[in-house]
Design brief:
The structure holds two protein chains of two kinds. Chain A has helices at 4-7, 18-56, 73-76, 84-87, 92-109, 118-122, 128-139, 156-162, 168-172, 179-191, 201-204, 219-250, 255-269, 272-286, 294-318, 322-330, 335-363, 367-371, 396-404, 410-442; strands at residues 61-70, 147-153, 194-198. Chain A is mainly alpha-helical. Chain A has two domains: 60-199, no CATH class; 219-440, MetI-like fold (Orthogonal Bundle), CATH 1.10.3720. Chain A has a three-stranded antiparallel sheet. In chain A, helix 2 crosses helix 20 (410-442), helix 12 runs parallel beside helix 15 (294-318) and helix 15 packs across helix 17. Chain B contains eleven helices and ten strands. Chain B has helices at residues 2-7, 56-62, 93-99, 114-124, 131-144, 148-151, 164-177, 194-207, 220-226, 244-249, 254-260; strands spanning 16-27, 30-41, 45-49, 73-81, 84-85, 100-103, 182-186, 212-216, 229-234, 237-243. Chain B has a six-stranded mixed sheet, sandwiched between helices. In chain B, strands 2-1-4-5 form a four-stranded antiparallel sheet, covered by helices on one side. The longest helix of chain B has 14 residues, at 131-144. Chain B is globular, with a radius of gyration of 18 Å. The chains are: A mainly alpha, B alpha/beta. At the A-B interface, helix 16 and helix 17 of A face helix 3, helix 4 and helix 7 of B. The complex binds adenosine-5'-triphosphate and magnesium ion.
Chain lengths: 444, 265
């Protein structure tokens, strides 16, 4: 009869009591907060992507002008021997008038009234055109004397007109382009002589100087970044994993290892430019490695990436339950066997993810590379591996930085285009990380 | 002659397998085991009983130096296996553990296939000449652990996909597969139903023909059924050690009597 609970009326399950209502409201508030936070993040990402894509997609399309050129022998090979050494004496200045005249003739032949002088006509073509034609002719001397159809880049301003960057009004105030040239370009586009289409040279061609944005490409930068990533991968993975395994599984836990642990965490937080200074002092000034070379950039990025990979690897080693180690040791496995047979396979997905995240970080790193000379203007492709590691090269993020520094607004488009390439590579790498992780994890 | 011993459950003077003298174990500042003397005879089952937290697992782990893997643990005293000090600096614990196997209190199968779980020990110790021999060892071990019938059709399935009790038996099979001279079992039947328990007890009885077995158990009946000797622990001390029959019928120490009759623990 003194039972207190019996005296209380049984609460209905159909109505929430005060406590439950309070808790549920707190949960709803928290969820709304979380969704708002996520929404902000997604919005920021969307704006960023939209701006990069809208600015940069144009870099993958380029305006070309197509017309026939007579490769006259008297100009290009006065001796008539088709000897490349002798022909090489004709510089690009020998080719330029040839192209300019051919373009003017073709326009005249189409019956288009231009009112433009030959110099203004030639200025519509890229300054890169004579060089490209010369390279083609030297590579194939038999072309001399023939008439070939030339497909040359239009100058950056003409190209900008078709991408909306240049208008008739802006051309009035522009020394590099006139409204007449733009009108002619419009007419040529209608005549089919001038076309805007996909330009794979943006991916494969080397950088070009500030006056020729239309010819600038990412070839050297992509190759340089690729070489550096190889160096980073080959060095960080074994060193990082070995160091982590040693620290996590074998090293005695004492003051000294504690100190190392703290320092590794600190290294991960060191500004990347410090690694650049270190690389400059050690690899270039002390070890005498060449400047601007992917090997130096790769070594610097290795230093920068190692702490990240060590921290990620140790975390995934630590996540393996100790009972697995006990099980192996209890069966008479050595410590190394327990690590390599049981712990490492379980930690592999985490190690892999950490490595790829570290590589992605290294791929996007700019500051330390500036210090070791990767910012140099490089037009020569580095040689194939391994010699190419010592040739000058550029890197994708440095190329972005480089292009944003140039005055011609056409380079803004190219910089955004380079960012798109960088992002695509990063997305690809992260997708690979997810894929590999799934594969490894699916086994159990 | 071994058959004789099975049919005759009374204790005879058998060769000494492990002798522990004045063993102390510390976890940091915690004194978990105090001055324990225990003799484990060959071809005998020795049971460790006592209330939870009294140090049975701790002492068991000393016998194959599994405590080495716990950073804070420190062991003092002498433990001899066949007369050799197992804590001698020249002893490689890896070699020791191949001879003194252990089944842990919590089942810990490898996240590999059932087959690989059992085959792992024989593989690293080179016990099987070829694949067929290894398969034979795996089957025999699983049969002895009373698991074969349940898993024979899915040896490739992950060991972690088994039920708790099956995992426990898998761990027993895994330990048995390396043919240790001494098998330490920490509450091997805690997750098992009466049928599987009976099968494991049968296995223990069978192992006793060739090896010595040390079993930690919370079941008085089990200790009485399977063991010849019993050690009673209480708060890190060895309260009493002797023949199982004597411990259960005529204990010397009042704490033993209290524990057995259920007044403490
Ligand atoms: N790794 C460890 N670190 C610190 N203290 C420990 C550790 N393992 C055990 N202990 C302590 O040692 C004492 C004995 O523990 P142990 O696990 O040996 O008990 P037990 O007799 O096996 O108990 P149970 O029957 O519950 O398994 C306990 O007080 C426990 O808190
Ligand atoms: Mg225990």
């Amino acid at each position: 009869m003194t039972d207190a609970t019996a005296a209380r009326p049984t609460p209905s399950l159909l109505a929430q009591d005060n406590r439950t209502r309070h808790r549920n409201r707190a949960e709803v508030r928290f969820r709304a907060f979380g969704m708002a936070a996520m929404g902000t993040g997604v919005l920021a990402l969307a704006v960023l992507l939209a701006s990069v894509v809208s600015n940069g997609l144009g870099a993958f399309r380029q305006t070309f002008i197509t017309f026939p050129v007579v490769l006259s022998q008297e100009r290009l090979d006065p001796d008539g021997h088709r000897d490349p050494a002798a022909m090489a004496r004709v510089t690009t200045f020998g080719y330029a008038p040839l192209i300019g005249r051919a373009f003017a003739d073709h326009v005249a032949a189409l019956g288009i009234e231009t009112g433009l002088g030959p110099r203004a006509m030639a200025a519509m073509l890229s300054e890169e055109a004579p060089g490209q034609l010369r390279t083609a002719v030297l590579a194939n001397p038999q072309l001399v004397g023939e008439t070939i159809t030339l497909d040359v880049l239009a100058s950056g301003r003409i190209d900008g007109y078709f991408k909306g960057r240049v208008t008739l009004e802006s051309a009035e105030r522009d020394r590099n382009v006139s409204p007449e040239q733009l009108r002619l370009a419009e007419t040529l586009a209608q005549a089919g002589v001038l076309t805007t289409r996909f330009n794979q040279n943006f991916i494969t061609a080397p950088d070009a100087s500030g006056q020729r944005p239309e010819a600038a490409g990412l070839g050297v930068a992509i190759l340089g970044s690729f070489y550096m990533m190889l160096v980073v991968l080959v060095l960080t993975l074994p060193i990082g994993v070995a160091a982590s395994i040693y620290l996590e599984e074998f090293a005695p836990k004492n003051r000294f290892t504690d100190l190392i642990e703290v320092n590794i965490s600190n290294l991960a937080a060191v500004p990347s430019i410090v690694f650049g200074i270190l690389g400059l002092a050690i690899f270039i000034n002390f070890a005498g490695l060449p400047q601007s070379a992917p090997i130096v950039g790769g070594l610097v990025l290795t230093l920068m990436t190692l702490p990240t990979i060590i921290i990620a690897t140790r975390a995934s080693l630590r996540a393996v339950p100790p009972s697995i180690r006990s099980a192996a040791l209890g069966l008479g496995a050595s410590r190394m066997q327990s690590v390599f047979h049981h712990v490492l396979p379980l930690a592999a997905p985490g190690i892999l993810t950490g490595t790829i995240i570290g590589l992605a970080q290294a791929l996007g790193e700019t500051a330390p590379l500036l210090l070791v000379g990767m910012v140099a203007f490089v037009r020569e492709y580095p040689a194939p591996l391994p010699a190419g590691l010592f040739d000058p090269a550029s890197a994708l993020p440095v190329q972005v930085y480089n292009w944003t520094q140039r005055s011609d607004p056409a380079f803004v488009e190219r910089a955004s285009g380079a960012i798109i390439v960088l992002l695509v590579v990063l997305i690809f790498m992260n997708a690979l990380a997810v894929l590999l992780r799934r594969r490894f994890e699916r086994r159990w | 002659m071994n058959d004789l011993q099975v049919t005759d459950p009374t204790v005879q003077t058998r060769a000494l397998k492990i002798s522990a003298r004045q063993v102390d174990v510390f976890y940091g500042d915690t004194h978990a085991i105090r001055k324990v003397d225990v003799d484990i005879a060959d071809k005998t089952v020795t049971a460790f009983i006592g209330p939870s937290g009294c140090g049975k697992s701790t002492f068991l782990r000393c016998l194959n130096r599994m405590n080495d893997t716990i950073d804070t643990a420190r062991v003092a005293g002498k433990i001899r296996l066949d007369g050799e000090d197992i804590y001698d600096p020249r002893v490689d614990p890896v070699q020791l553990r191949a001879r003194v196997g252990i089944v842990f209190q919590k089942p810990n199968p490898f996240p590999k296939s059932i087959y690989d779980n059992v085959a792992y020990g024989p593989r690293i110790h080179g016990l099987a000449r070829d694949k067929a021999a290894l398969g034979g060892i795996v089957e025999k071990s699983l049969r002895r652990a009373a698991l074969w019938d349940e898993v024979k059709d899915r040896l490739g399935a992950p060991g972690t996909s088994l039920s708790g009790g099956q995992q426990q038996r898998l761990c027993i099979a895994r330990a048995v597969a390396t043919s240790p001279e001494v098998l330490l079992m920490d509450e091997p039947c805690s997750a098992l139903d009466p049928i599987a328990t009976a099968q494991v007890e049968e296995l223990i009885d069978e192992l006793r023909r060739r090896y010595s077995v040390v079993i930690v158990t919370h079941s008085m009946q089990q200790a009485a059924r399977v063991s010849q000797n019993t050690a009673v622990f209480h708060l890190g001390e060895l309260v009493e050690f002797g023949e199982t029959g004597q411990i259960f019928t005529n204990p010397n120490d009042p704490r033993t009597e209290n524990y057995i009759t259920g007044r403490i623990g």
